[in-house]
Amino acid sequence: MTDPTAGPQTHPATDPTTQPQADPGAAPAPVTLTADDLRARVRDLLASHPPAGTPRADFLRARFDAGLAWVHYPHGLGGLGAPRSLQAVVDAELEAAGAPDNDPRRIGIGLGMAAPTILAYGTEEQKRRFLRPLWAGEEVWCQLFSEPGAGSDLAALGTRAVLDEEAGEWVVDGQKVWTSSAHTARWAILIARTDPSLPKHRGVTYFLCDMHAPGVEVRPLRQITGEAEFNEVFLTGVRIPDAHRLGAVGEGWAVARTTLMNERVSIGGMRIPREGGMIAPVAAAWRERPELRTHALHQRLLDLWVEAEVARLTGERLRQQLAVGQPGPEGSGMKLTFARLNQEISGLEVELLAEDGLSYEDWTMSRPELVDFTGRDAGYRYLRAKGNSIEGGTSEILLNIVAERVLGLPPEPRDDKDLAWKDLAR
Predict the structure, then answer these.
(1) Do residues 361 and 45 touch, judged by C-beta distance below 8 A?
(2) 263 is an active site residue
(3) Per-residue pLDDT reduced to its tens digit, 78-95
């Protein structure tokens, strides 16, 4: 099993004459790629695939094949086994050259959640089948985890998967909810109960589900913003080949935890510039419209600006920690901060703009491909930020995680941990 966030890795040197020769039969000593090595590889990519004359899809595939997609991933899987911190070098060089990106906001679930889980638990065949089109944005992913009766208590999920041994397929029935991008997704990461006689955290298995398979029905869920960014998904007799099972049967909860930890890091630990993100439009309005200023609003803006900068720097430290290990519970703390700050900052913006803050550009029902906080008006930001304390794990659940796994406080008493799922009251 490959560690998707391992620290500096190495690859055999191409020139054995530069290596110690004490043991003629030994493999050459490994060398570590440097920033200059990666810049040279970027130059080679740009020379063979000039961005101005290469179709976007072809350029992205070539970048993946050159190992410049995720430099810390293994050779052949979009990476070079290089230190994760060197990804910023590659990104900066390609951005300066005007090279296209893979529209990461549109495929964020695939990049931030599906990919690291597939890398950690997938077979070699699964990795080679799914990672390249995922990274290039050819196949959008969604997450089939939450259910109407299993949101905060995700392990209580009731979607069933039964093995048809003769066909070598799992037959899945159930309902999922709050599924971002389900209406555009080609694939989904899915957890389902395969043994109801075991306690709820056991007897769960993790699958890769074809969203175009017969029996998959996606229905829009209209939100407070007027959009249907989320969906509910009904699964009726959906057949999933056993070859699309990720990890061992009954060990899906451990696989799902990898997904969830990566999800919280991807939500709360996004890289943004100084005075970027939600604080940016508020600061801009303060500078551009002095007639709106009051002393009380000024004090609140200063406090939130400092908090946003602290959160940004903490996120940078978290990303550096990821260079030497798997995501941990620290991501839950970052996601907590992200939700609270977004809600407080968007509330301040609405107050600052007075009657203009109460306007809303469009209530027309739509099904967007991504969430665009900064490209919309203050009213949208205020309403959409309300969901930040729910999506990716509710703030209440994340507080428990921080309390137990970061602070070492005793867990809350639970009487359902060792009961068979089928015997739980529902």
Answers:
(1) no
(2) yes
(3) 999 998 889 999 999 999
